[in-house]
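[job 0412] stage=complex_fold ligand=NAP status=START
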Amino acid sequence: MLPSSTFRDQVVIVTGGGTGIGLAIARRFGELGAHLVLASRSAAHLDEAAEGLRAAGLSALTVPTDVRDPAQVDAMVARAVEAFGRIDVLVNNAAGNFICRAEDLSPNGWNAVISIVLNGSFYCSRAVGRHLIARGGGGAIVSILANYVWTGSPGTIHSAAAKAGVMSMTQTLAVEWARHGIRVNAVAPGPVESPGAARQLWPNQQAVQRITDGVPLGRWGRPGEVADAVTYLASPYAGFITGEVLTIDGGAWMSGGDYGFLGEDGK
Ligand code: HXC
Ligand code: NAP
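[job 0412] stage=complex_fold status=DONE, emitting structure tokens
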């Protein structure tokens, strides 16, 4: 458990911070003293999340943003700096995903996911990195990958390729921005309870059971467990860690690495 003042007066941007894992991450940073900036497409997601955070006594600014658009990303970062005077941490959490066989995936379908996950993470990292470098360095970036960066993922080729790209970006930026004191890390969760992911990836109990059976620890991860890892990596307690990927999956990828998204027979 990190001390409750770990991020006191710091400013943390969480993309996709209005739902699921992103909201749990935002909440945990807030509980550790941070001012929060939530950025995603849907004002409704953001407003509902911010209301809950403020009701818990936390400080949250919402900035509707499509991370696929670099101009919107730059404007979001400028708005955060205008509101709070600084940014200290970026969490690249926004994502899109759906199950589709590779041979059936349209170029638009491929681009939809690559644009959110890979391009969006780059645009946000670039905008926040520029701010951190201009103010003299320091700060941290943590990106949310998935445990299939280690294996690939039949049925979600777009997401697996994009997440692997963000992993490579994490390693590149860790070295490139080390001289500015900016640490860049990632977490790679396995299956985590989240309505957004459930809608896209495990629509019925049969699929849920199949995925559970593939986790050696025998259960799903909790959003708060991802939040614990992200806040640790962004904190001074991880001050000598950069370019690292922390897998949070109950041992799942080592025991198979196929979610069975394409069904029992894999066809
Ligand atoms: C095939 C599909 C499809 C599907 C969309 N497309 N859904 N193709 N099967 N189920 C195709 C469309 O036909 C279209 O191509 C193209 O993708 C773009 O679709 P749009 O609906 O116009 O895109 P957009 O409105 O931009 O929405 C983006 C999205 C959507 C990614 C498609 O699902 C989304 O907004 N997702 C955000 C939330 C989300 O996905 N959360 C889950 C994250 S969980 P054509 O050719 O027809 O024009 C996660 C877990 C990972 O990442 C790890 C698990 C273990
Ligand atoms: P989720 O609730 O659907 O989260 C996705 C978030 O991304 C939403 O808040 C969405 O908000 C935002 N988003 C999507 N497209 C965007 C865009 N173009 N611009 C800005 N924001 C956008 O699902 P989740 O499960 O919590 O996923 C959170 C992260 O965890 C993702 O990176 C996901 O890949 C990762 N992950 C999840 C699991 C799991 O099992 N759940 C496992 C491994 C990794 P809007 O709709 O408002 O834009």
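Residues 25 and 227 are 4 Å apart (CA to CA).
[job 0412] exit 0
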